[in-house]
Amino acid sequence: MTQKKSATGSAASNEYVTLTDHTTGENYDFPLMPGSTGPKVIDVRSLYGQTGHFTYDPGYTSTGACESQITYIDGEEGVLMHRGYRIEELAEQSDFMEVCYLLLNGELPNKAEKEDFESTITNHTMVHEQLSYFFRGFRRDAHPMAIMVAVVGALSAFYHDSLDVNDERQRMITSHRLIAKVPTIAAMAYKFSVGQPFVYPRNDLTYAENFLHMMFAVPAEEYKVDPVLAKAMDRILILHADHEQNASTSTVRLAGSTGANPFASISAGISSLWGPAHGGANEAVLAMLDQIGSVDKISEFVEKAKDPDDEFRLMGFGHRVYKNYDPRAKVMQQSCHEVLDALGIRDEPLLKLAMELERLALEDDYFVSKKLFPNVDFYSGIILKAMNFPTSMFTVLFAVARTVGWISQWKEMIEDPTAKLGRPRQLYTGPTERPFVPVSKR
Ligand code: CMC
Q1: In Å, how far are 73, 98, 165, 363 from 406, measured between CA atoms?
Q2: Rounded Cα distance, 106 and 292, in Å
Q3: CA-to-CA distance for 288 and 357, rounded, in angstroms?
């Protein structure tokens, strides 16, 4: 493939990439589309029409599926920005409600806008009372992610007044409802699993405080939210709020591209997040640390992770996009130390184990040469454990935080005039046409 400048360029850029089909000797030009930063993309929308061929890219490692103005990642440099703001700055100086507003609306809110947004979210935190009966249908030992998939999807059976995806106002109401109600549902899933009564949201608390309150308060005594934990919770939410076109976000976009309602689309995203290669990794990190057990066993497990014949991988290491330190992992590591210090559990053996594992892996040629660095999930599990969250809730917390990213991406897609039904093609390698043989003759 060669690159040349064309005098007849596209509206976006005058640059083209030429594809030569060596079987026919034909040349085909494809426009290069520039972003505001980052690599240009080759616009192959006319590829099939021009050449009769599709592209082949399982795992979408070289495919841009949409245009987006929300989140930018430079995986080589370890940069993550939302609407142009670095994640480190947002984690340090902003709060989750501001980040939600930013992701949804494109700009940071002024004081009045922020107050108005917070009040709107606060006033949508209760769920329809009828929804609470759903929980009784689950086994007591149901994984809370299973409950999340079902109950968030079921919201579409309750809020008929905001399901019209073509109505801008309804889209915004649904976005607010999802951001507000997902933590309530998450906390209910937890309460159900431990046999405690559901705790209703409280409007005098911040988003993070309210979530901790719904999770850990019981009617028998007063629950005071620890400000250090509330701050850490808020930061965890910020760090997970959005991450460009990852598997769950792409799932939300794909489901939403059919015109499916946003509650159903987000429920699809929650399913996609569940897997250990994605949001399930924070839960898997703790299971792995438990499995390793002690510092002297680390090198044995590092060797297992390097063995191509062994399925074991170091959970919390590696990333499809980051080939450098995940910037979220750095902030998370710092938060982790702050939380453990504040709780007076500095000597937490799991943290010691995690830090030693990180040190050994970062010195190991295998991990260095493959650019496998700790990702956001490596430390989040340890903080969440210290905050008393059971491991089964870790991925649920990821879903609570990512809801704003999913809904912002969904909204952007619905409002994009160039967006189309998502419908990938394939390379067919199955049998070619053959005559049907009746069962009596098989
Ligand atoms: N431990 C050991 N080897 C690894 C690991 C790991 N954690 N991750 C990747 N590799 C190796 C892999 O075996 C492969 O080696 P080779 O080239 O010899 O076949 C090479 O590195 C590239 O891996 P890949 O699986 O082709 O890369 P990918 O981009 O498809 O996978 C990943 C990305 C995140 C699924 C993978 O790194 C992984 O399984 N990590 C552990 C799970 C994890 O921590 N997931 C959380 C991701 S961050 C949270 C989120 O955004 O959802």
Answers
A1: 16, 16, 15, 36
A2: 44
A3: 11
* Type of residue at 412: E
pTM flag (> 0.85): yes
Predicted confidence (pLDDT) per residue in 141-181, tens digit: 999 999 999 999 999 999 999 999 999 999 999 999 999 99
Intra-chain end-to-end CA distance of the chain, in Å: 49
3-state percent breakdown (helix, strand, coil) of the chain, nearest 5: 50, 10, 40
Is 319 known to be catalytic?
Answer: yes
Q: What is the CA radius of gyration of the chain?
A: 24
Q: How far is CA 274 from the centre of its chain?
A: 10
* Strands ordered across the beta sheet of 15-21: 2-5, 15-21, 26-33, 41-42
Ligand 1 within 6 A of CB of 252: no
In angstroms, what is the span from residue 371 Cα to ligand 1's centroid? 10
Could you give the strand order of the β-sheet that contains 79-82, starting from the edge strand earlier in sequence?
71-74, 79-82, 85-86
Active site residue 377: yes
